[in-house]
Amino acid sequence: MGRGVNPEIIPKRRLYTGAEMPAVGLGTFGSDKYSADQVANAVYGAVQCGYRLIDCAAVYQNEAQIGEVLKNLFDDGVVRREELFITSKVWNDMHGEGKVLESCRQSLKDLGLSYIDLYFVHWPFPNYHAPGCDGDSRNPDSKPFSVEEFMTTWRQCEELVRMGLVKHIGMSNMTIPKLEAVLPLCEIQPAALEMELHPSFQQPELFDYAVKHEIQPIGYCPIGSPSRPERDRTAEDVADTQMPEIVEIAEAHHVHPAVICLKWAVQRGQIPIPFSVKEPQYISNLQCAAEDPLTDAEMERIRLADKNCRLIKGQVFLWKGARSWEDLWDLDGTITK
Ligand SMILES: NC(=O)c1ccc[n+]([C@@H]2O[C@H](COP(=O)([O-])OP(=O)(O)OC[C@H]3O[C@@H](n4cnc5c(N)ncnc54)[C@H](OP(=O)(O)O)[C@@H]3O)[C@@H](O)[C@H]2O)c1
């Protein structure tokens, strides 16, 4: 293979259903910085270069453009549908009775697909904000997490599996207390958990909990999301690509620090979904999973460098009466009301 990576050499992860998915994928959230067409063009290039997993979502507002590109990839004979693993997500404003089916059908239509491989509940509550809003924006209709409301949404996701519209369902932005409350109620278990994971935010308890329950962790912001929107930045945030441990290991391997974040992620066992619209970046982000692994000592050094630094705090989803963004993440071990 010329430009890019042979997808055969990219490691795979096996889900509890027995289905396999690639150990690295491409993110598609343009972070209010890259246009839908730029992201869609990157999807074409990335699939040409060997990517087989694409992480989509209705709220990224680019599924229609990505759908056009997927059609071109199929028409041009670059890839067949069954070789791709496509995810999508129901956004917070589509949780109500009957709405999940509507949202999924829209994503299927936009993406030009007859099924989605893995369909997530993007956030575990129906609180939403306008795309591109600032960090102080609050929706007066926002409410704390409710097991009952979540299960109304999840029951609809289960129905999507039975209808054959999606192959697997997953949860995102969950906590252990929320999982403890809902997993026993699920008729179809989540196959994956999409969660923030990067060297300065390793979430070891939640990661181990997911693995123990045969739920595949998928790591978002795997490079520490250096291009994230302003609303998701605070003065205390750690930049993963500037952590001394990451920089020194990158020097030893003669690669960019971003690549070390991804090697660590793949070797730890989560599936990183790095975003990039730049060909040299997205090629190295894929290739790094198949060559020059980190040593055990390097893996341990990164493990010890965890800073518990959450970047996507979710403060725009807070409800009236909530104290601070920490309330979204059940830090005292029970579901915060
Ligand atoms: N489930 C959820 O709630 C959720 C939340 C957030 C994200 N996600 C998903 O996770 C994906 C990834 O997260 P993210 O986009 O926030 O962050 P990320 O992948 O950690 O960071 C992406 C940025 O890193 C830089 N980069 C990428 N590859 C690089 C390389 N090889 N060398 C140097 N710099 C590199 C690029 O910056 P420049 O553009 O400046 O070059 C790029 O924009 C999203 O696209 C989305 O699909 C899901």
Structure, explained:
There is one protein chain. The chain is an alpha/beta fold. Helix content is 33%, strand content 12%. It has a single domain (7-329), classed as TIM Barrel. It has ten helices and ten strands. The longest helix is centred in the middle third of the chain and has 16 residues, at 147-162. NADP nicotinamide-adenine-dinucleotide phosphate (NAP) binds at residues 27-29, 31, 55, 122, 172-173, 194, 220-228, 256, 258-259, 273-276, 278, 281, 284-285, 312.
The low-pLDDT segments are none
Count up the helices. Answer: 10
What order do the SSEs take from the amino end to the carboxyl end, as H and E? Answer: EEEHEHEHEHEHEHEHHEHH
Report the biggest beta sheet as strand number plus sense, adding barrel if it closes.
Answer: 8 strands, parallel
- Strand tally: 10
Distance between termini? 54 Å
Q: How many domains would you count in the coordinates?
A: 1
Roughly what fraction of the amino acids lie in strands? 5-15%
Architecture per CATH nomenclature, i.e. the level-2 architecture: Alpha-Beta Barrel
* CATH homologous superfamily caption: NADP-dependent oxidoreductase domain
CATH topology: TIM Barrel
User: Which whole number gives the mean pLDDT?
Assistant: 95
> In angstroms, what is the radius of gyration?
19 Å
Oligomer: single chain
Distinct small molecules bound, one entry per kind: NADP nicotinamide-adenine-dinucleotide phosphate
Q: What topology, given as strand order, has the largest sheet?
A: 3-4-5-6-7-8-9-10
Task: Please write the CATH class name.
Answer: Alpha Beta
Structural class: alpha/beta
Q: Level of helix content?
A: 25-40%
Approximate shape: globular
